[in-house]
């Protein structure tokens, strides 16, 4: 709130691995990275550079935005006949005023309430084509004038969110499920932005970024990926070319990522995180174009020694190793089973017991790596994990970059793993991987992941990243950077949205310090508090602790 207050006061002053590529499943290359300063469009997208006046806040305080969201949704439901939702409207309206946010007092709160009903009534009028012009004028009147402390961009986003809430409710009344789903996604996308939770938020404020990252992902999660999102990951026809020791793996075909990593670690057992990536890049250079990437949940010191063991070990180890050759299919690969055996041997040397490794292979002898089997394996891997535990996840197979199915990716693409039964059961998309593998982990748990597949750079959607490209390696060598840097396109809003849809995951995230809870309306907070055994006061205390850390 202090951040909002200072800005408000300032504003009031004078004015496809290729022929060797095993990992891409018929998907074009894509990148997540690009300019994020953009003007909102009605569908939630962006169009051109933003022209917001300097000094005005570009988002509301988190809990205030959450109440606008709750009010707008409830107003839409009231408009289509669900009169019991009027209590939710009044509760959110009361909560907004009670926050006493400078410049957002009774007048602006009343505007947003009136506009919420106006947007819903306009959407209903458009269904019957009756009274449309009258309802448009009511909506225009509600949005005039713009509150002085709100930027043009933010007010425009607010309007688009309220209109989407009205359209969503109207589509429900109409019984149009397709339109309802589309409007819900548009509503949620605009809501993330007015909360300050869109892609790239807080990256300039490292302290705030780190605090929020630790709230939504308290465990230490580190992921090696064989390539960036826009790249394919290569197969090696004969891993003997890498010069691995005879006992390091079974030989034959294998993945470039897995085998370059194991070769580097065999050559130097004291590799730093940065040194390991640099060594992998050197091994791959000249033969393969892929650039290894490291992502993490915390700002890892790149000059510390690489380890897949928790720095404060409890003695409990678990590993899930998946290798899929897609035997007998048109997408058949050759080396993924070998990759798993190579990684298994390495992990045993690091203290991972054989009876605590679950192996999924499509060889007819092990448990099958179908979608249900992979999901069950992920659940087994993280189940019961406590502080000090060491977990390891290795996947060798096809990866995919496909059209985003819930509009939560900046580039419109979801990264995905390809189970052996992908053609019938579907892909395992990044949001699903997050739910099964990341969301439940508590503070003090260590999870190391190695993904040897195409389009794998950000599949876990982690807040910190390091690419082993020439420019980044140069900054490390010159001493300009020593730790993992914030991912410029990381979207806290996407993570909170996933957690809202799977609220019991927040137990693993220590109730997300209240950030998730304050991203809900009052009714949702009460419901979740009941599920978790918390009272409303305890939930709000968690929430205020989170906000105080973020709004300084």
Describe, in plain words, how this protein is organized in 3D.
The chain has 552 residues and is α/β, with parallel strands linked by helices. Helices cover 43% and strands 11% of the residues. It contains 19 helices and 13 strands. The protein has helices spanning 2-11, 62-79, 86-98, 106-128, 132-142, 152-174, 177-194, 206-216, 256-267, 273-284, 336-349, 371-382, 422-425, 430-438, 470-477, 492-501, 515-518, 522-532, 536-550, and strands at 220-225, 235-236, 254-255, 293-296, 317-323, 357-361, 390-396, 399-403, 413-417, 428-429, 446-452, 464-467, 485-486. The strands form three sheets. An eight-stranded mixed sheet has the order 6-5-7-11-1-4-12-13, sandwiched between helices. Strands 8-9-10 form a three-stranded antiparallel sheet. α11 (336-349) links the parallel β5 and β6. α2 runs antiparallel to α3 and α12 packs parallel to α14 (430-438). Residues 1-41, 44-54, 228-233, 507-515 and 543-552 have low confidence and may be disordered.
